[in-house]
């Protein structure tokens, strides 16, 4: 695919790149931690001796948030991330790319079937650690996880914000960040999503979190918002 690429350039966010194609289109990408292997069928790009993975904003809420104007990506090189709702590893694999070998990504997923897929991804990524567990009960997996710099939450539960806060109390370092993907229709199908976003961010503020930014993820994810909040 290298002949299709005009250039790969750095963005303002660490280890997140813009891949500029010869036809003028630009896509987000990350440097592949597991060269030669894609995770969800994404395009692999060779440029100046490095391999990059195209990061599809319609498949990843973090990529969608970046495309919608995320002011700051707290996911950086060499940090530790706890990811609740890791699923089969699409976004966790890109986070694995970003944190590199000095970082760690703990991926908690409730479904045994899906965890098997996540394990296959982790087999080629020494910084990705799958954990089969229920995110509502962090005490059950606390011994497996160090304190983290970022808590990423993408779970379809009515009490998803409460679960995020509970896990933050267990694992998030002071001045650490939450990236919370609010799924409005999982909370209340009768209310307007914007009303739900306000209610959920108010919960974070009441518990002492500083809400830095709230981004509506449409058109990448309908009725979803990404909340960036700082702890402590």
How would you name the CATH homologous superfamily of the largest domain?
A: Vaccinia Virus protein VP39
Counting structural domains, the number is 2
Q: How are the strands of the largest sheet arranged?
A: 8-7-6-9-10-12-11
CATH class identity of the largest domain: Alpha Beta
What does the main sheet amount to?
A: 7 strands, mixed
Quote the average pLDDT. 95
Q: Quaternary status of these chains? A: single chain
Q: What low-confidence regions span 5 or more consecutive residues with pLDDT below 50?
A: none
The N- to C-terminal Cα distance equals 45 Å
Q: Would you tell me which CATH topology of the largest domain applies?
A: Rossmann fold
Helix content: 25-40%
Which secondary-structure class do the elements indicate? Answer: alpha/beta
Helix-strand sequence: EEEEEHEHEHEEHEHHEE
Total DSSP E strands = 12
**CATH architecture of the largest domain, please?**
3-Layer(aba) Sandwich
**What spatial form do the alpha-carbon principal axes imply?**
globular
Q: If helices are DSSP runs of H or I spanning 4 or more residues, what is the number of helices?
A: 6
Q: Give the percentage of residues in beta strands.
A: 25-35%
- From the alpha carbons, calculate the radius of gyration and give it in angstroms: 17 Å
